[in-house]
Amino acid sequence: MSFKSGQFEAIRKKKQIPECGFKPTPKKTRLKIRSGAVASANGSALVKIGSTTMLSAIKMEVMTPSLESPDEGCLAIDFHMPPICSPIVRPGRPAEAAPVLSKQLSDTISSSGIIDLKELSLVTGKAAWMAYLDVYCLDADGALFDAALLSAVAALSHLQIPAVSMNDDGKIVLMSDDDGQKQAQEPVNKEKRNLTLRSIPFSLTCILHKNYILVDPTAEEESVMETVVTIALDTSGQLVSLYKPGGPVLAFTPSIQDCVALTRQRVKELKGILEEANSTMQVE
User: Fold this and answer.
1) Chain-centre distance for alpha carbon 148
2) What are the structural domains, with CATH classification, of the chain?
3) Which residue of 136, 154, 220, 261 pairs with 45 in a disulfide if CB–CB is 3.0 to 4.6 A?
């Protein structure tokens, strides 16, 4: 990214950033999570960070587990950027950022250990759950990874694993409340259940220049800054990942330390918002 001093100065004045330091962009009231946004999905969530909007949906299918992991299920993550999300995404042409974000999401969720894939096992060596997690970008206005990760995590926390049983032919079938033969079938999951989430990852994107740090950058701000850093921490404060797509080499360790400190604050904030969203769903 090329640094344009005139554009940065305009952003600095707009954000009221003092020349002697940094001032994070306050967006506490602009962080929103709505669990259960897609009624037909097994788990879903709609998330907004500023104007950036993400919708995540999870569908569960029964599969045969691999020979290497006979007692584990699978989680497949895909990120989508339809033309509606940004004028730079054209119909018929896949967005360049989509596969990159898909890999970042998969790596971060896998590295965090948020879920135990053994929880997705049904019958060892015979049946397990395949969870398809699709994240759709509805509005791309900066900090895409932060919103995508939050949306994915919120959908996983809302996920209800369907109740299933084994029929007389040894096949796994869904159990419905009005299934007259339910009692004659061997239950595998007797009732719907939630996943046990362990260390939940959250992230924060910072844009840097000299002694300036801005968080929650918009797409315009990302385009004129020379360095973008995204840090992911789990709820225990452990570093999960650090992404720096291009830009100059960071020689100032204190800048990264400041970004980590800001991320710790954001993790506490997002954890509270996610818990509130989940408790609201339970009441409803």
Assistant:
1) 4
2) 5-159+195-283 (3.30.230.70)
3) 154
**pLDDT, averaged across the chain:** 84
In this prediction the pTM is 0.87
Is residue 202 over pLDDT 80? Answer: yes
pLDDT at 88: 84
Say how far apart CA 151 and CA 216 lie, in whole Å. 16
What's the pLDDT band for 192 if we cut at 50, 70, 90? confident
d(CA 46, CA 249): 35
User: What distances in angstroms separate CA 117 from CA 70, 71, 114, 196, one per listed residue?
Assistant: 11, 8, 10, 10
Q: Where are the beta strands (DSSP E) in 38-197?
A: 43-49, 52-63, 74-80, 121-123, 127-139, 160-161, 164-166, 172-174, 186-189, 193-194
> How far from 231 is each of 186, 215, 256, 257, 258, CA to CA, in Å?
46, 11, 9, 11, 11
Crossing angle for the helix pair 97-112 and 144-158, to the nearest 10 degrees: 50
**Of 210 and 72, more confident:** 72
For residue 121, pLDDT beyond 70 = yes
pLDDT of residue 212: 77
C-alpha span between 101 and 263 (Å, rounded): 19
31-40, 51-60, 107-116, 158-167: segment of lowest average pLDDT:
158-167
The amino acid at residue 225 is: M
Q: What is the 3-state secondary structure (H, E, C) of 269-282?
A: HHHHHHHHHHHHHH
CA distance 237 to 234: 5
**Beta strand 74-80 pairing with 121-123:** unpaired
